[in-house]
From TrEMBL:
Transmembrane segments: none annotated. This is MPV17 mitochondrial inner membrane protein like 2. It is found in: Membrane. GO terms for cellular component: membrane; mitochondrion. The keyword Cell membrane does not apply. Belongs to the peroxisomal membrane protein PXMP2/4 family. Keywords: Membrane, Transmembrane, Transmembrane helix.
């Protein structure tokens, strides 16, 4: 059928479900109400998610995982800085968003990405964990991460960002001493 059916006609069978999905995806209201209409819209949504997963899956395997983790770390740092700057702009009238600052955060995040990629691979190899029985190993991993990697990355963060902002090594070290415990 080329258009929606009248309210008097029933919807049944596979062809009718496909019509409902087609109508829902075209933005035209389906005369079906309730669970059948929700199913029609949901099946199209699940198909879209499955396709997205199939396209993105290679990014999380093999060598591409290193690139994905590196860029992901940079993006998270830049987005976090963008959120913080948005808050600062609202709190302090006259202050403007600084894209260079977010770009610096992206660069520092990308520089941390490979280290973090290999660090977490090593931790997973050292302390494998899955399910509830693996909870003690998960807690050990968190403890090791917080005692070893977090302080190292804190130093990396302050020195790297200081370098990108044109600070001297002494200025970066002083900022690290002033802000490390708050950061940690």
């Amino acid at each position: 059928p080329s258009g929606p059916r009248s309210a008097g006609e029933g919807w049944s069978g596979r062809a009718d479900r496909e019509d409902r999905v087609r109508l829902a995806s075209a933005g035209r209201a389906s005369p079906v109400r309730g669970p059948a209409a929700r199913w029609a819209m949901a099946s199209g949504g699940w198909r879209w998610l499955r396709a997205l997963r199939a396209v993105g899956q290679p990014l999380f395997q093999g060598r591409a995982l290193l690139v994905t983790n590196t860029l992901g770390c940079g993006v998270l740092m830049a987005v976090g800085d963008g959120v913080r700057q948005s808050w600062e702009v609202r709190a302090r009238p006259g202050q403007k968003f600084n894209p260079r600052r977010s770009a610096s955060m992206f660069a520092v995040g990308c520089s941390m990405g490979p280290f973090l990629h290999y660090w977490y691979l090593w931790l997973d190899h050292l302390l494998p964990a899955s399910g509830l029985p693996g909870l003690p190993n998960v807690l050990r991993k968190v403890l090791i991460d917080q005692l070893v990697a977090s302080p190292m990355l804190g130093v990396w963060y302050f020195l790297g960002l200081g370098c990108l902002e044109g600070q001297t090594l002494d200025e970066s070290c002083q900022e690290l001493r002033d802000k490390f415990w708050e950061f940690y």
